[in-house]
Amino acid sequence: MLEFVIGYSAGSATASRAASLARSAAVGDATIQTNRIEDLNERIDSMALVLRAMWALMEESGVTTEQLVAKIEELDLLDGHEDGAMAQRAPIDCPSCDSKVAPGLSACQFCGAAVETEDEHPLGGV
After folding, report:
1. What phi and psi, each to the nearest 5 degrees, are found at residue 80?
2. Are 111 and 94 in contact (CB under 8 A)?
């Protein structure tokens, strides 16, 4: 009977520690997610400021709201879909190992071979 009580209490303590670790991990994951959301919010705020500055310069140069809307619609249709979003760039094939390389990387993540990247517009990744 004593062995049972000792085993039970040791098992309870282990279960309690495991539950505590699980709660700590969940808090850590939540903190990471919160930090990522805060970072995204800061980036959105910065982009909004840049867009306002650009629009102010364009207005000073005589660009009308109608011209802006027409250009937005034109660019939206470049991917063949009027959906208010730009199409995602397709992965590039690695010239060395034929793996797919994510857009924006200059080297294959598997073999390290350099891949050709398109010369993009400075705002292409926005």
Report:
1. 90, 0
2. yes
Total domains, the chain: 2
Tokens 């992965």, located at residue: 91
**pTM for the full predicted model:** 0.47
For the chain, 126 residues long, give each residue's pLDDT as a single digit of tens: 445 545 555 555 666 666 666 666 666 777 888 888 999 999 999 999 999 999 999 999 999 999 999 998 998 888 778 888 877 778 889 999 999 988 878 889 889 999 887 655 555 555
Q: Which domain holds residue 41?
A: 2-61
Tell me the C-alpha distance between 14 and 16, whole Å: 5
Residue 123: inside a domain, yes or no?
Answer: no
Evaluate whether residue 70 is within a structural domain. Answer: no
